[in-house]
Amino acid sequence: MSTEEAVVGVMPARGVLLDLDGTILETVGDLATATNRTLADFKREAVSEERVRTWIGDGVRALVRFALEATGGCDDALLDDAHERFMVHYGDCFADRSHPFPGVVEALDHLRESGISLAVVTNKAAAFTEPLLEATGLSARLDVIISGDSVARKKPDPAPIRAALERMGLEADQAVLVGDSRNDVEAGLAAGCRVVCVTYGYNRGEDVSTLGAQRLVDSFSAVRDLIQPGDRAVESA
Ligand SMILES: O=C(O)COP(=O)(O)O
Ligand SMILES: [Mg+2]
């Protein structure tokens, strides 16, 4: 490690891959609204926002399955119907309360201005990812967007990470992934990226310090100065 990096501890990179829900956007409020409207359609009891928070991260179909299992049971036919209802309800409310976490807009602007490319890699369905990024003002700040249904497999599989890197024209060791949960850390490491894990996100109550990420940050603001333009070879020298 060079003297400069030993002092400031930066992660040199050419690109940053960002998880969406729980990392750059606080989305649990609108996801809970859509979940409860869906449960009401099937005469199920409402669930708390805190419970919904623990069901985010594997895509919306998994969220609906968790909600049905928690309120009386789930089978394939019911899941298909409820998933369809959820898509309608979430379409009505996905941007009502969702907003960037503190420090996100400023950090993304700073990274971009310093020449680092930015991608979102989320397990969320594409039908919502792009409108949500547009509504929250983040879309114009991103070079690449990969959703849960953009490639055949979702995180924790490394396939969506590799698809983003290919579109950015980067090798895995030129990129840092910033995520909030096991799916992100596993996918990022399996693809060969370095990983930063935020501690405030949707991590299902798991201690994220045990997942193998190179760094943990308590606020997205810390990402602003942690990642700087450069090549990893310098860091590991
Ligand atoms: O569960 C989802 O829909 C998406 O979650 P992610 O943005 O954290 O990948
Ligand atoms: Mg997430």
Residue-averaged pLDDT: 95
Q: Could you give the order of strands across the largest sheet?
A: 6-5-2-7-8-9
| Computed structural class | alpha/beta
Gyration radius over CA: 18 Å
Strand content: 5-15%
Helix and strand run: HEEEHHHHEHEHEHEHEEHEH
CATH topology of the largest domain: Rossmann fold
Q: List the ligand species.
A: 2-phosphoglycolic acid, magnesium ion
Q: Tally the structural domains.
A: 2
Architecture of the largest domain in CATH? 3-Layer(aba) Sandwich
Please give the oligomerization state of what you see: single chain
Poorly predicted ranges:
1-7
Helix content: 40-55%
CATH superfamily of the largest domain: HAD superfamily/HAD-like
Protein name: Phosphoglycolate phosphatase
Function: Specifically catalyzes the dephosphorylation of 2-phosphoglycolate. Is involved in the dissimilation of the intracellular 2-phosphoglycolate formed during the DNA repair of 3'-phosphoglycolate ends, a major class of DNA lesions induced by oxidative stress.
InterPro entries: HAD-like_hydrolase_sf, HAD-like_sf, HAD-SF_hydro_IA, HAD-SF_hydro_IIIA, HAD_2, HAD_sf, PGP-like_dom2, PGPase_prok
Pathway: Organic acid metabolism; glycolate biosynthesis; glycolate from 2-phosphoglycolate: step 1/1
Describe this structure in a few short sentences.
The chain is an alpha/beta fold and 237 residues long. The protein is 44% helix and 15% strand.
